[in-house]
Amino acid sequence: MRESPTGGNPGIPHTTTVIHRSYLFARGWRSATPVLLLLPGFLLYLVMAVGPSLATAVYSFTDATGIRGIAINWIGFENYDEFLLRGAASRDNIAALRRTVYFCLFVTVIQFGIGLLFAVLLNQKIRGKKFFRTLFFMPVILGVAIQGLIWKLFLLPRGGPAAEFFQLFGWTSELLGGQPRQAFAWVIVVQIWANAGITMVIFLAGMQTIPNELYEAARIDGAGKWQLFRNVTWPLLTPAVNTNLLLNIIGSLQAWQLFLVLIGYRPGTQVLGYLVFAEGFGQTSGSVSSAFRQGYAAAASIALFILVLVFALVTHAWLSRREKRYIG
Q1: Residue 61 within any structural domain of the chain
Q2: CA Rg, the chain, in Å?
């Protein structure tokens, strides 16, 4: 910044402010350097994310099967009409949509609570906390297929460890092979077990950013452990809370792989994400048929996208108000 006299009243110096701005990439053609550096990543994003998403939206208005040699015809909103409004299949689809919401609510609430509890406990000065952090996070690094196969073997109705344990108390259960509600509940358990570790790690990362001086000042004022958590830890964990809630909600709404590995295509257990897979690749009643309906599956995936979008926007709006209230 530089001040320079410009004349006028000799007794009152008149000055103007000149601001010199430096630009890392100078002027001329060099000013395009940031754009050129971002261009490869932007093109990759268009090809890998935006392109398939737009193609899915277009395919949802066709009778595409995904099989070579079969013509693709434009049928408008017929897939959406069949999926949501027409006949017994639409009632099953609506039931799957409700089941997806139930799955999201149970998984989000329980996984959020368990992750927070583990984070609080393992943020203390206790023996073996590194071991327990690793133990609780280990399921996250396993693939969905491995997670599902481990639990499928564990929950075998005959000879599995869970069945043997229940027999000690005189209980009998078909576990994954039982009633749809029972099988559905076990998938919720496995989903939480598989992902609670990442929720814990995000909370732990948030707790590491809280200055210890705030806790010391609160203790001097006579705050107990609950007051420390309520008035110091919880408000300052707001970024971690926001991240975990959004990840848990979006992840549970889109979950379907564990259903495929654990129980397959069974009436009364399907969620919307699994219906997309089953319709797109012809899987019905545990077998694979040639009646692929990828246009219909695309319409189902758009319905799932709208569901995720609505939940994400509502949650984000609520979290934004909460963040302003706590940390401004």
Answers
A1: no
A2: 28
The enclosing domain of 178 has a CATH number of 1.10.3720.10
Distance (Å, rounded) from C-alpha 164 to C-alpha 172?
9
pTM, two decimal places: 0.83
User: 123 vs 130, 209, 266, 286, 306, CA distance in Å?
Assistant: 10, 12, 42, 45, 38
* pLDDT at residue 290, as a whole number: 44
How far from 291 is each of 288, 300, 311, CA to CA, in Å?
9, 16, 32
Task: Give the closest residue to 106 by CA, choosing from 98, 118, 117, 116.
Answer: 98
211: in domain: yes
Q: Amino acid letter at 156?
A: L
State residue 62 phi and psi, 5-degree precision.
Answer: -125, 175
CA dist 189 and 178 (Å) reads 15
Q: Which domain holds residue 295?
A: 78-327
Q: What mean pLDDT, rounded, does the chain reach?
A: 86
Q: Flag whether 43 is in a domain.
A: no
Does residue 214 fall inside a structural domain? yes
pLDDT band at 42 (very low <50, low <70, confident <90, very high): very high
Q: How many domains in the chain?
A: 1
pLDDT tens for each residue of 229-265: 999 999 999 999 999 999 999 999 999 999 999 988 8
